[in-house]
Structure formats: C-alpha cells, structure tokens
Amino acid sequence: GIVAPNAVAAVDGQRQWDRLMAMARLGAITGADGAPGVNRPCLCPLDREARRLLIGWGEAIGLEPSVDALGNLFLRHAGKEPGLPPVLTGSHMDSQPSGGRFDGIWGVLAALEAVQALREAGTATRHPIEIVAWTNEEGGRFAPGCMGSMAYAGHSPPDAWDAVTDGEGIRFGDALAEQLALEADIPRRPLGVVERMRPHAYVEAHIEQGPVLEAEGLDIGVVTGIQGSRWFLVELTGESAHAGTAPLSTRRDAVQDMVRAITALNRLMEDPTDVLRFTVARIEVAPNSSNSVAETVRFTIDFRHPDAAVLTARGDAIESTIRQAVRHCEVAVTERFHALPAEFAPAVVEAVARAAAAQGLAAKRMPSGAFHDAQFMVPLCPSGMVFVPSRRGISHNPAEYSSPEQLAKGARVLAQVLAELAA
Ligand code: GLV
Ligand code: MN
Ligand code: MN
Ligand code: MN
C-alpha cells in the first residue's frame, strides 16, 4: 500500500511546475524552432541566483540551509530524531551550455516538493531528510562533472580541481572561493562524511534523458544502476605555418593528426552490440585561423560502458592508440574523470518499485546511460534513482521536455520513498 498517503496526496504538481519555470528564467535561451532552454553553468551569477531562490523557498517552509567547502548546498528537515543519519535526496542546478529546463534542477525541486508535502501532511519521519544541490554535476564549464559529489564521497580530495580553468581562464578554485564568500551568511558545514555520519540512504530524481519510458508508455523508471564513464583530454602539439607556402610534406599539422587519432579511436571503439558510447565533442584549435596550419589541438573524449572490464581495457588503450596514429605532433593525454559502473542497493530499488506500484503507475527497471551524482553515493549508503519520461528522449538540448503531470508522478513516488526510507 501507499506508505504515506497524506504526503503523497499533498504533492502539488502545479507548485513544482511553477518553481521549475521560475528556475528556467535564470539563464533562459532559445534553441532550434524556438525551444525554451537553459544555459546556467556552475558558479556563474545565474547559478548563484538559482541557489538563493532555492534557499528562500526552503527557508519559507522551515528548512535549514547549509553549504560545504565545495559549495554543495543542503536544506535540512530535522525529523523526530535529528541525531540520526539523514536521508539525502537531490541532484544538481547547473546546466549544459545549451541545456534544457529539467536536467538536474527537477531532482532538486522534486525533493523540495516531496519534503514540503511530508511536512504539510504532518508525516513524521525519524530520520532527518537533507535536500542537496551538488556543485558542478555537468562539467560543461569546469571539467569534470560531479565535482561536488566526488568530494563529498571522499572519491577525490576537495582541492583536486582548484587549477581547472573554464573557457575564459577563470580557475575553479577562484570561482568557488568567490561564491563561498558571497554565501558567507549561510551556515557552513563540514565537507562530506569524514567527520560526520554516513547518510542513511540517498535517492535522486531525474529525467530519463533517453527514449525508453516514453516509447513504452511508462510513468516511472526504477533505476538499477549507472554505466561507467571515463573522460580524457588530448593535446596535440605541432607547428603553425603559412597555408599558402608550407609544403604538405614539411608540415606538423595538429588538425591532420587529430583526424588520424580519431579515426584510430573509432576502430578501437567499434562495438557490434551498440552498447559502447564514444564521443569527441569539444575541439579547440590554435591559432584557429583558416590560412594558418594548426599548431595545437585539444579535444575531449567521453567514453562509457556498463561493463567494468570493457571500460578498463578499451579506456586503457586510448593513449597508445593515439600515439600510434599520430605522425608529427607531440601527444599528451590526461584522464580527467573515471567513474566505475555503479549498481544501486536493492533496498532503494525495491522502495522505488513498491512506491510506483502502490500508486498505480506503470514502471520498469532500467539502467542509466547518463552519469549522476548518485553514482558516487553508492559506496557510502544504500542509493537509488527515480526516472520520469523525457519527450523523444531528448536531453542536453533546449527541446528537453517532461510534462507537469509526468513530473508530479515522479515527485509522488519520491515522497513515498522518502517517507519509507526516513521512517
Ligand atoms: C551528465 O550530464 C552526463 O553526461 O551523463
Ligand atoms: Mn543531470
Ligand atoms: Mn546533464
Ligand atoms: Mn548528468
């Protein structure tokens, strides 16, 4: 049955939608065919406004805000036994540069809606519930993504990315310090679980970002795990030359070597089963002038697979493959992100499945192709996720869409799962 019927009934789909649309105004962009998207990179002024908005909404219903050294933002519902480990729920508020209105932010606002519903319904929880907005999940401005959750989980030291720069040369460490100074009025909390207790459980609501739920006419994805990801930065250094005078035989052309490298990588990444994901999508060329031979090229690799053995074997072969393919350039390959495939805890997976069934929603178990902060909670505590359908599976695109009704169903499932986990 429904564990907390009053709380589930108190979930207000319109209120959740109105908050989503208010957030979508912070960084609003227009994509192809007028699609209303969002560009809100982490630690930019718009991200700060979004955080203030969230803090205000949380305080208005009695939640206590706090911020840690990575800028992870928490809103706490104390529960009946505030000394117990908290149930953690949330996602991220930063977006891709050409992103949609739902990726990340919905998981934070669904958590707020679910906790507000629990409080309004007077549903008692023994455990505290903490809503979290993780810093820099996307990794679009500062690579890699998931910095906040990785530091929280002790997967990486908190200063690991201080020297990472964005497209304008701004250091992550400086942008973070500036933000923390602007948020000096918000109580600070210790980072992560080292000095504190482990969370009791973690559950993250997120749009599917793929086509499965819509295609099968389902309401809820019961997420069973997340495939592994590895990110690399490749730097090729040749020599600039005059496009009209330098003979091809004497050139050390970084773009031509990049073509050789990517061609060889495409062979390495061949997969008849079509499970493997391999993406080169960010390329910087210098001097970036049509009549100067390219001196340097920097390009990114995003490689993913659900099988740790494949992730390791092919990922480890990337550098040697590039070195063998390149003819003239110096090669530097840096690994910037390494997330192992993660399997969610049966306790949380079953709680999500039970909640969906009890509410009469059509659900199925599925893995996640996208990575999420939830991946880094798996070693800390029983963890899981709730997916809702994405129209045509579109994400990382202004055309991203899930309907108010679909998102309300997701928030109702989350409310029941939180009530159960925090009981
Ligand atoms: C995160 O946005 C991802 O690329 O999976
Ligand atoms: Mn996301
Ligand atoms: Mn994303
Ligand atoms: Mn993501």
From TrEMBL:
<feature type="binding site">
    <location>
        <position position="92"/>
    </location>
    <ligand>
        <name>Zn(2+) 1</name>
    </ligand>
</feature>
<dbReference type="InterPro" id="IPR011650">
    <property type="entry name" value="Peptidase_M20_dimer"/>
</dbReference>
<feature type="binding site">
    <location>
        <position position="138"/>
    </location>
    <ligand>
        <name>Zn(2+) 2</name>
    </ligand>
</feature>
<dbReference type="InterPro" id="IPR002933">
    <property type="entry name" value="Peptidase_M20"/>
</dbReference>
<dbReference type="InterPro" id="IPR036264">
    <property type="entry name" value="Bact_exopeptidase_dim_dom"/>
</dbReference>
<feature type="binding site">
    <location>
        <position position="396"/>
    </location>
    <ligand>
        <name>Zn(2+) 2</name>
    </ligand>
</feature>
<dbReference type="InterPro" id="IPR010158">
    <property type="entry name" value="Amidase_Cbmase"/>
</dbReference>
<keyword id="KW-0378">Hydrolase</keyword>
<protein>
    <submittedName>
        <fullName>Zn-dependent hydrolase</fullName>
    </submittedName>
</protein>
<feature type="binding site">
    <location>
        <position position="103"/>
    </location>
    <ligand>
        <name>Zn(2+) 1</name>
    </ligand>
</feature>
<dbReference type="Pfam" id="PF01546">
    <property type="entry name" value="Peptidase_M20"/>
</dbReference>
<feature type="binding site">
    <location>
        <position position="103"/>
    </location>
    <ligand>
        <name>Zn(2+) 2</name>
    </ligand>
</feature>
<keyword id="KW-0862">Zinc</keyword>
<dbReference type="GO" id="GO:0046872">
    <property type="term" value="F:metal ion binding"/>
</dbReference>
<dbReference type="Pfam" id="PF07687">
    <property type="entry name" value="M20_dimer"/>
</dbReference>
<feature type="binding site">
    <location>
        <position position="206"/>
    </location>
    <ligand>
        <name>Zn(2+) 1</name>
    </ligand>
</feature>
<keyword id="KW-0479">Metal-binding</keyword>
<feature type="domain" description="Peptidase M20 dimerisation">
    <location>
        <begin position="225"/>
        <end position="325"/>
    </location>
</feature>
<dbReference type="GO" id="GO:0016813">
    <property type="term" value="F:hydrolase activity, acting on carbon-nitrogen (but not peptide) bonds, in linear amidines"/>
</dbReference>
<comment type="similarity">
    <text>Belongs to the peptidase M20 family.</text>
</comment>
